[in-house]
Every structure is written in structure tokens, then in C-alpha cells.
Inverse folding.
């Protein structure tokens, strides 16, 4: 009864096509946005921002990017970590090279650089698909990380081999560097997430999204009805890498502050984001958020529960945490192979009839 | 009468058939040592329903794949609208106004019926990347205009009730109909149908025949049809090409083909003594 669509009539195609066609959903979405922008900043502290909220937001962008590539266009990629590194290093070089440029433009430009690199490494997708493409993108992962750790130009010849973000501000508030407050960092990340999710949603519900999905579902038929496979695949690589690059730039500049390619953007990052996409739900914007939340918030909650609640030792908790998260992933995949987003869809279907299912 | 270079002819039921739309000239298609199509020539005229029939493995689907640019014949040329067609990728052929359905349903299973049919409009939608990303002005307007066209096709094929259903959940007969809808949404000049009635029951077949005739009648679409059901072929088509083992063994009106001794031999077999 709470959640219903009866009586919610649509009289134009535009209103039928909107992202949240059901009124209840729409108001829920506005409410979440309002809480995120107005209420959360009042309560957020360093601990919550650094261990939960900011990584969640940043990983959500990466998951969104990878979901466009894998979930919407069907091109398997294991190079996410490396593309995040491209975003991070491009961000660093731009911050140092052009100190006057606003950090927002620096991050967007870093995304564009990553998009170009992504298109380059997406070229093999025109010839190979599936697991073989995954191996080809794995090459990108290892090559790019090797490049960033071995070429001193990328880290400006710093003796440690690390890149560290200088202080940059928006409207006078420092966003990067040690003096940035958690509220500003949170708001900047949130703004990026909301804007990029909106862009991704628009792209996936329009012509381009349908081209991608056509290639994903049956590439030969797609080509015969008029989809240019070259353009569709490369545009998916470009958009996906753009998002991943932005998330890498944010990860380095506002979250870590200092990074080293091999450590921060290794193959484990690629797998982490891949798991987020699979657990959240392939081909779903909401799924990217749910997957990121599950894999970022899940471990932290478990740690809180085990260490603070049960009083277990930290190292025991850390091991158990890995095992429990692994088991949860398995359980979720067996119960709902299409991810958390499909689970959410089922819940909504049930809610429509609740409490009178017959 | 059919072999003269005139500007068309009248059918018995009073439809005007135009001049030559597409002409196959001496098409030969080989896969390694296998010759799928052997030196075949025929033409397709504007507004007609042209059937291609033949036993299994005769090369009918290969012929359709040559027309839609998926296979490139080793010898021979395709003339479209009077000009020799250069070697093209299938999506370029689609952009020239040739749409098709497939023998084994080739719908996009992960998408809704509506989205599947909207993909048929791809060649009519060209809002730029940024406009789409921002859902701004032209992109949103284009989406609505094309949705309106798609809704007309949905009405025409009577599939309103499954508009938002994921295609994977539909039964076979409806999938075939959605596939036809996707091809029709492209507003093609030539529509290629590869066994549109395969695997259907009598009622579904009758529906499909009605749709094929209506498409031809209302939109004036030229239709090239591959079908095994002889009753359907003889009733629907204006002219029939008969293939056997990659060769053309007959070409003409249904009556001419029916009485062609070679065709009868191919279908019924010949006694070897």
C-alpha cells in the first residue's frame, strides 16, 4: 500500500520515459538527495568521511564506469585499476603543471585523458571478445602500472616515487592537501557522483545506451540493424574510462593525498571494482551504488561489530572480515545472480501488492 | 512480360509494381570449397512481395545475407537503385533503408520490447553525444518523436500489452512479432524476412501473413521473403525465386513456378533408374 503505481497515469512520452516513473520512487530520490546534501554535512566527522562515505562515493563512480563497459556494452575489462592510475597521474601532472587551473577542471581533464587512453586500449575489443578481451585489458593493467612506476617524469622525479597532491581550493575552501576539511571533501565527491550518475543515466537510456546494449546482447544482429560496432564499443570504452579516470583522480587528490601506482592502483583494485559491479548488478546504475556500498561499507561494519562489540583482537577480526565478506559474496551470487539491483527490483514488485498479495 | 525492361506491371489484385529496386547479377558465394550460391541473377521490384524458396541448404539465407551485406560474394554484383553497390559493412546497408528479421530470433534479450523496437530507429536518430549526455533539447525531443513512431508500429502489430516486458520472457510467436516490429520501426524501403512463420501455429501464421500483407499494402514496402510453407508463399508473393543446391531453378509468378518441372523434381525428388 505504501508503494503503488495505480492512479499514476502518464499522458506524455516524456513523463513515461523519466528515470523514476513512479511517484513514490521520485520523492524518495529527492529525499535521499536532500539528506545527502543538507543533513549529512552537518553530522559528518573525519572518521565517517575517511573510512566510509568518501571511499563509497569514489568507488561508486568507478563502478558506474565499469558497469557501462561490462554491464551495458558487454566488454569485459580488468584494467580498471590502471585506468584509475591514469586519472590520478594525469590529475597530478595537471595540478603541478597548471597551478592556476581550478581543481574541478583538473579532475575533468584527467577524466578526458583517461578516456583517450581507454579508447586506445579498447581497440582490441574490435577483434576479440569475452575472456580474451579481459586478458588484453589485463595487459593494460600491467603495462600502465609499470610505466607509472618506472618513468620518473610521471612522478616529477620525486625520490620516493610517490605523487602527492598540493593544496587546491574551490571558493576559498581547500579541497586537496592536508588542510582540506572532511565536509568539503564530502560535498565535492557527492557533487561529482550526482552529476556523473545523471550523465550516465542519460547516456544509457538514450540512443547511445541502446547501441551499447544491442552490441552486448547480440553483436551480429546489432550490426545488421545499423549499429556501427567500432563506434559503439569505442564510445563505451571512452565513457567508461572517463568515469574511472575521474574516480582515480578523486581517489588520489582528495582521498589519499599521496599515492604510488603499484600500491594504490594494483590489480586488486580492478578486481574490487569488478566485484562491485557484479554484486551490485550488471547493467544497472543503482546496482553500481549498491555494489560499491556493499564492498566498502560491509567490511567496516563487520570490523565495528567484531572489534568494538565483541571485543575481539584486531588481527583476528581482519581475517574473519575477509572470510565473511567472501562468504557473503558467494551467498548473494547464488541467491540472486543478477545482483543487488535485481533484489531491489523484486522487493519493489512485492511491495506493490503488499500487504494483500492475492 | 516479367523479363522486359519496363517500369513495372499490375498484379491480379490491382497493385502497381514499380521498376527494378535491386538486382543481383551473377552472384557466386563460396565458403572455402563449398559453393553456397552458384551464379544467380534475379531482380526485386519496388512494391512487390518477392519470395525465395527452396529445400534446406539451398542457399536462401546466404542470399539474404548477401543482400544485407553480411556476406560478400566472390563474384557478381548487387545493383541497388540502379547503381552498383560497393563492398559495404552491414550497418551501412541498414542505413540505406534495408531492414531484416532473422531465421533464429535475434532480439536483444536483455532489453524491453520497447527498447528493442527503439533500436530499429537508430538510423533515424542522430543527436550528438553531449546533447544525449545532458538530455538536452534536441536529444529529448528526438527521443519523444521516435517514441511516437515506435508506438505506431506497436499499435500496428498489436503488441501494446507487452511494451515494457523484457524480451527474454516472451513466447516464441510474440518474439517473432517483436522482431518484425523492430525491422518495421526502421521504416525500410526493402524488408527482408527470413522464415517469419517458422515454428508458428496456424493462428499465428495467419496473423503474420496479415501483417506482411498490411505492411506491403499500407507502407508500400518491398518485401523479400524466405518461407517453407508453400501455401503461404503461393498466396502472398507476387514472384518467386526457387533455389536448389545454390542454383536458381525457377523464377516467375507462383503459378509458373508451381508448374515448373525442375521445381517439382527438386521438391518431390526424381526417380533414378
Amino acid at each position: 500500500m505504501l508503494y503503488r503505481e495505480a492512479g499514476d497515469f502518464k499522458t506524455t512520452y516524456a513523463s513515461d520515459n523519466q528515470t523514476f516513473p513512479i511517484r513514490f520512487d521520485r520523492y524518495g530520490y529527492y529525499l535521499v538527495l536532500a539528506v545527502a546534501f543538507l543533513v549529512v554535512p552537518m553530522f559528518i566527522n573525519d572518521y565517517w568521511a575517511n573510512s566510509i562515505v568518501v571511499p563509497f562515493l569514489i568507488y561508486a563512480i568507478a563502478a558506474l564506469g565499469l558497469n557501462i563497459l561490462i554491464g551495458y556494452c558487454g566488454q569485459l575489462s580488468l584494467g580498471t585499476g590502471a585506468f584509475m592510475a591514469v586519472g590520478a597521474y594525469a590529475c597530478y601532472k595537471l595540478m603541478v603543471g597548471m597551478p592556476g587551473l581550478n581543481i574541478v577542471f583538473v579532475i575533468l581533464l584527467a577524466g578526458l585523458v583517461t578516456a583517450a587512453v581507454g579508447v586506445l586500449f579498447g581497440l582490441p575489443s574490435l577483434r576479440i571478445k569475452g575472456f580474451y578481451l579481459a586478458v588484453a585489458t589485463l595487459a593494460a593493467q600491467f603495462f600502465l602500472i609499470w610505466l607509472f612506476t618506472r618513468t620518473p617524469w610521471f612522478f616529477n622525479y620525486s625520490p620516493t616515487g610517490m605523487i602527492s597532491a598540493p593544496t587546491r581550493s574551490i571558493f576559498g575552501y581547500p579541497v586537496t592537501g592536508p588542510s582540506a576539511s572532511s565536509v568539503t571533501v564530502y560535498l565535492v565527491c557527492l557533487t561529482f557522483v550526482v552529476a556523473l550518475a545523471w550523465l550516465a543515466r542519460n547516456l544509457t537510456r538514450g540512443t547511445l545506451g541502446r547501441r551499447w546494449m544491442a552490441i552486448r546482447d547480440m553483436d551480429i544482429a546489432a550490426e545488421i540493424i545499423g549499429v556501427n560496432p567500432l563506434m559503439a564499443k569505442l564510445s563505451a570504452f571512452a565513457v567508461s574510462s572517463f568515469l574511472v579516470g575521474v574516480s582515480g583522480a578523486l581517489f588520489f587528490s582528495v582521498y589519499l593525498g599521496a599515492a604510488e601506482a603499484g600500491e594504490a592502483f594494483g590489480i586488486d583494485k580492478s578486481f574490487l571494482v569488478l566485484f562491485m559491479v557484479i554484486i551490485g548488478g550488471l547493467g544497472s546504475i543503482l546496482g553500481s551504488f549498491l555494489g560499491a556500498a556493499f564492498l566498502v561499507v560491509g567490511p567496516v561494519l563487520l570490523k565495528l561489530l567484531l572489534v568494538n562489540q565483541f571485543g575481539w583482537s584486531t588481527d583476528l577480526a581482519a581475517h574473519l572480515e575477509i572470510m565473511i565478506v567472501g562468504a557473503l559474496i558467494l551467498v548473494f551470487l547464488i541467491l540472486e545472480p543478477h545482483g543487488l539491483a535485481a533484489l531491489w527490483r523484486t522487493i519493489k514488485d512485492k511491495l506493490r501488492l503488499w500487504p494483500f498479495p492475492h | 512480360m516479367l523479363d522486359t525492361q519496363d517500369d513495372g506491371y499490375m498484379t491480379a489484385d490491382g497493385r502497381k509494381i514499380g521498376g527494378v529496386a535491386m538486382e543481383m547479377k551473377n552472384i557466386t558465394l563460396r565458403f572455402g570449397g563449398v559453393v553456397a550460391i552458384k551464379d544467380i541473377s534475379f531482380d526485386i521490384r519496388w512494391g512487390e512481395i518477392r519470395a525465395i524458396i527452396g529445400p534446406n541448404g539451398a542457399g536462401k539465407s546466404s542470399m539474404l545475407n548477401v543482400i544485407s551485406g553480411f556476406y560478400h560474394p566472390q563474384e557478381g554484383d548487387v545493383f541497388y537503385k540502379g547503381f552498383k553497390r560497393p563492398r559495404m559493412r552491414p550497418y551501412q546497408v541498414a542505413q540505406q533503408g534495408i531492414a531484416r528479421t532473422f531465421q533464429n530470433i535475434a532480439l536483444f534479450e536483455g532489453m524491453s520490447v520497447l527498447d528493442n523496437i527503439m533500436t530499429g530507429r537508430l538510423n533515424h536518430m542522430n543527436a550528438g553525444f553531449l546533447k544525449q549526455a545532458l538530455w538536452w533539447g534536441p536529444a529529448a525531443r528526438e527521443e519523444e518523436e521516435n517514441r511516437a513512431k515506435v508506438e505506431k508500429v506497436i499499435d500496428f502489430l498489436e503488441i501494446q500489452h507487452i511494451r515494457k516486458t523484457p524480451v527474454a520472457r516472451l513466447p516464441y510467436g510474440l518474439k517473432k512479432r517483436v522482431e518484425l516490429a523492430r525491422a518495421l520501426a526502421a521504416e525500410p524501403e526493402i524488408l527482408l524476412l527470413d522464415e517469419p512463420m517458422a515454428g508458428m501455429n496456424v493462428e499465428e501464421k495467419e496473423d503474420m501473413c496479415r501483417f506482411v500483407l498490411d505492411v506491403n499494402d499500407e507502407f508500400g514496402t518491398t518485401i523479400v521473403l524466405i518461407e517453407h510453407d508453400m501455401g503461404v508463399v503461393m498466396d502472398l508473393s507476387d514472384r518467386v525465386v526457387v533455389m536448389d543446391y545454390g542454383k536458381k531453378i525457377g523464377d516467375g509468378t507462383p503459378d509458373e513456378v508451381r508448374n515448373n518441372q525442375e521445381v517439382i523434381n527438386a521438391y518431390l525428388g526424381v526417380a533414378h533408374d
Remarks:
- The first helix of chain A runs from residue 13 to 17.
- DSSP finds 15 helices and four strands in chain A.
- Chain A touches chain B through 29 residues (CB under 8 Å).
